[in-house]
Amino acid sequence: MNKLTVVGIGPGAYELMTIKAAETLRNCDVIVGYTVYVDLVKEHFPGKEFLTTPMKKEVERCRLAFEEAGKGKNVAMICSGDAGVYGMSGLILEIGQEFPEVAVEIVSGVTAAIGGASVLGAPLIHDFAVISLSDLLTPWEKIEKRLSAAAEADLSVVLYNPSSKKRKDYLKKACEIMLAWKDPNTVCGTVVNIGREGEQASLYTLAELKDTPVDMFTTVFVGNSQTKVIDGKMVTPRGYII
Amino acid sequence: MNKLTVVGIGPGAYELMTIKAAETLRNCDVIVGYTVYVDLVKEHFPGKEFLTTPMKKEVERCRLAFEEAGKGKNVAMICSGDAGVYGMSGLILEIGQEFPEVAVEIVSGVTAAIGGASVLGAPLIHDFAVISLSDLLTPWEKIEKRLSAAAEADLSVVLYNPSSKKRKDYLKKACEIMLAWKDPNTVCGTVVNIGREGEQASLYTLAELKDTPVDMFTTVFVGNSQTKVIDGKMVTPRGYII
User: Fold this and answer.
1) Taking a contact as any Cβ pair under 8 Å apart, which residues of chain A between 179 and 218 contact chain B?
2) Chain B contact present for A84, CB below 8 A
3) Partner A contacted by B130 (CB < 8 A)
4) Rounded to the nearest 10 degrees, how much is the dihedral formed by the CA atoms of B81, B85, B86, B92?
């Protein structure tokens, strides 16, 4: 049967890919993806056919992957992080209804919440929420409600897509919403370029984070009421008595 | 400097480990962990020294790892999934204050939420919360509040530790709390033994899940209001127009 595998390549560094992800890319004929991610893996998988589509062409990219698989090629569609967290695996399964002759498999990867947490320390040891600040496909009111609920329930929060050219003040707005429930001194952290060149972690209070400009390559972590700084690391305790 | 690396080994299968995790285990002298996880990796890393402590001896296990590193050995402490999600990296950083001569590094892994989602389909494509039902270290009232807030905000929810011998009715209680906000027909899924022998995925409605017995090797996924079943897979759409 024709085969399409959706592969999360992790944060970016080759060695943060799972062994299965690397094997899948080594064994496939064609690698399909967003231009930036294809550039990240290209050097490690020489001799493959690479097909790219730009951002905002996700539906076209998925159809392209199925069409290539329909030709009998073994196709891998790559996503950064994990394909199942704001990634392409959902859209692939939806569009897959049009291509019943293609078998779909999904290979897990390290999403930014997991990869970034390791860089910062251990901010997600206890219950947490993952929320995207992008209102491209989600009404902002829904995002606000989720931020507020997560903050009220004292969850740690990971923010994906905290900023873009058109959404420069969204992180500020998100912090203001969470400040209704979370202490201004709540420990927060950001990681830029997780697992890539220029990786950088920074710690803030929630009050400071509110006025910190971030870019689209940043993942933001907001602690719970117990989160603390230990030797420069952001640590959320689970409750063990030491 | 003496070195202790905390390594998430992923759900269990060797190929779901990151390349860096496998390299770390290949290059270390001693592998420390909970007995069950050490048994999962043992065959892949022959010639290593293996040290284990049973469940509920987490503090002792961390001290043991530091003491071995203090002797000049290159030590890896393994956790299932990711070390930063209900794992040992937080406790290691806390106890690390007592062992300033040991450098700690953390290597990310595929946590059960990510690994299980790939098996079920794509349940976590949009915003979600990760909540543990274990009240061993967390007051049940706090867990209830988090379940209720996540359900009210229409987050998908992943439940870790949904059951144990002493907590047989906790999943039922959790479903009842979420049913105050989520439709009884909300698509839910469970995955047993993710990435291990006997892996099994099942789909339910939230009303059905309430009366489904699960064990401690099960990870539970509760969809949001948009989650649907496509060809037997649990899929949460992100909002793309196909």
Assistant:
1) none
2) yes
3) yes
4) 100
Q: CA–CA separation, A154 vs A95, rounded Å?
A: 37
Q: How far is the C-alpha of A206 from the C-alpha of A212, rounded, in Å?
A: 10
- In terms of pLDDT, which residue wins out, B12 or A16? A16
CB-based contact A223:A186 (threshold 8 Å):
yes
pLDDT digits (tens, 9 = 90+) for B146-199: 999 999 999 999 999 999 888 889 999 999 999 999 999 999 999 999 988 899
Q: What does the block give as tokens for B230? A: 């496509």
CA distance from start to end of chain B: 55
Q: Which two tokens stand for residue A88?
A: 């392409």
H-run or E-run covering A66: helix A58-70
Angle, CA B224 vertex, CA B220 and CA B225 arms, to 5°: 140
Tokens of A47: 């001799």
Three-state SS at B79: strand
What is the nearest CA distance from A212 to chain B, expressed in angstroms?
A: 23
Nearest chain B CA: its distance from A49 CA (Å): 23
Could you give the ipTM of this predicted complex? 0.97
Q: Which two tokens stand for residue B58?
A: 């987490």
